[in-house]
Amino acid sequence: TADIETHTYDVVIIGAGGAGLRAAIEARVSGKKTAIISKSLFGKAHTVMAEGGCAAAMGNANSNDNWMVHFGDTMRGGKFLNNWRMAELHAKEAPDRVWELETYGALFDRTADGRISQRNFGGHSYPRLAHVGDRTGLELIRTLQQKIVSLQQEDFRNTGDYEANIKVYDETTIVDLLKDGDKISGAVAYQRESGRHLLFEAPAIVMATGGIGKSYKVTSNSWEYTGDGHALALRAGASLINMEFLQFHPTGMVWPPSVKGILVTESVRGDGGILTNSEGKRFMFDYIADVFKDLYATTPEEGDRWYTDPDNNRRPPELLPRDEVARAINSEVKAGRGTPHGGVYLTVAGRTEVGLTTEAILKKLPSMHHQFKELADVDITKEAMEVGPTCHYVMGGIEVDPDTGAASVPGLFAAGECSGGMHGSNRLGGNSLSDLLVFGKRAGAGAAEYVDKLGKDRPVVSDAAVKEARDRSVAPFGDGGQEGAENPYTIHQELQQSMNDLVGIIRKAEEVEEAQGKIDELRERAKHMVVEGHRQFNPGWHLALDLRNMLLVSECVAKAALIRTESRGGHTREDHPVMNAEWRHKLLVCNIKDDGSVDVQEKEQIPLREDLLDLFEMSELKKYFTEAELAGRNS
Ligand code: FAD
């Protein structure tokens, strides 16, 4: 392939968020020549936006905490649909990954006696989130980047070339993965600045591309979360699981319209913020589901006491898992008890009884104070915030081997938000940053080991496949002025509106079917998309390429959402409102068919290991498992 700039690596990491950077570090320290590819500027991944913190059962704030409690909370949060092996590895390894970050130079907030401080978050039994104010993701990214720079300095000392063993290609977007037979052989990219294509030859690729939120109109996600990794992997023959489960964060900004969807961190509630409706009622007490009844306070007084005396009181229901809180807010607004702009109130002002003085608010939630002041002209130390659900996180993703991050395609690995399984039907806040570190490291190691095993027998890139990928990616330029030409922005808007309205927080069969029809229509229309201008910095062109991914991923979400006839975590069916134990042990697996459409099949989950089942009371298991699954256990 003489006419395309070509780079050869052992391991190519697609994505420079927490998962990608941690994977890259691991691949490089395992002796592999590693590239990091990032669609956005280096440092501007989703991870940088993470506010609340990174969950790890270090037991600093409450010595009762340990990996088993964290594991239990994670499984409970995911309504026991989680891949239990991932949840186990995550709970066991998260503390070490946080400590390791400090060895790279991170500095988390401290307790009075100098240990890493931990804060409360929804669904976590104890204060568990290691944090840096409400800017934790920034510290995480900064530190991982610093580690990469230090590895490059080491390489410079040894070879005279900073980029000898680890190089970053930012503003570079992967458009297709390449295979030799059934094995990964490389990937084709374009660069934003030049619009030129690049070829990466590599036997191992780690997907770390993050989420899919840009398929929805109201989202906390930024422009690059178009499900590229999900779609690239699917098209390369890998399977996706759990795509029906999307997390609608309960608290996004609802006003002004230009910022609708921007996240209001859960720390606001973790630190003592309360939710009220237009009648001034703390309504969450009316929404404690049966499965959570014994775990949450039943009066505001008890809930408030919990902040200072957690051992003798139960937590307030504002800290229920996110799916529960988001549905409750949705119901309040629908019942006509919403705020003027269609949300509910979230208040930290005046909550001095739980320690939220003005000074404490400014210290604990500086970004939230700044965000509301700048964007909505609201001073959160004096006034309530107006908030409502926003599409935030995708639980579904590439199906991987828990220990190595290997996808079903040899040479393909995945970690972080683009992988599936770890969080089951609903992710607990704080469990993503820890997921990135734990599974980023594992996927980097998995990829390195795979390359070692391949030895000299490396897959080869085919010229024809490169040409096909390139031709496909420039097709939207067409020859201009065609009749019936479609505009990518219009198609995107229509897709976002349909997904929001028809496959959103509450779903029903007719609407999901309508969405499927709309996706089919948009896919046809997308074949006639035409973009204008040059290839350099051309956002219309980029959107046209992103849409190919968004449409495919949306098809997965809609198809899986129609098949799962129950309500669980981030999938609520108005026409099937009950959680059904028969569905708990089933996964919906998406694959691509020869005609490019998505096929969804049911698959049995691997049963939870006995010693892990023993961590739960029988009375709790009965709420989630079928009788047959629990047969033979002591009640
Ligand atoms: P990302 O950080 O999303 O990075 C993806 C990378 O892939 C980017 O570099 C992107 O440019 C690149 N990429 C995408 N497509 C391509 C392509 N085609 N080619 C090349 N590169 C590509 N979680 C917590 O645990 N705690 C929190 O407090 C928290 N707060 C959050 C606050 C906000 C506002 C948001 C939006 C999320 C928050 N989350 C939090 C969730 C968490 O931040 C994300 O789930 C996590 O950062 C995802 O990390 P990642 O490494 O998987 O991907």
Automatic annotation (TrEMBL):
Keywords: Coiled coil, Flavoprotein, Oxidoreductase. Residues 492-602 form the Fumarate reductase/succinate dehydrogenase flavoprotein-like C-terminal domain. It is an enzyme of class 1 (oxidoreductase). One of its GO terms (molecular function) is succinate dehydrogenase (quinone) activity. Its EC number is 1.3.5.1. Residues 505-532 form a coiled coil. Residues 10-433 form the FAD-dependent oxidoreductase 2 FAD-binding domain. NCBIfam families: PRK07803.1. PANTHER family: SUCCINATE DEHYDROGENASE 2 FLAVOPROTEIN SUBUNIT, SUCCINATE DEHYDROGENASE [UBIQUINONE] FLAVOPROTEIN SUBUNIT, MITOCHONDRIAL. This is Succinate dehydrogenase / fumarate reductase flavoprotein subunit. Pfam families: FAD_binding_2, Succ_DH_flav_C.
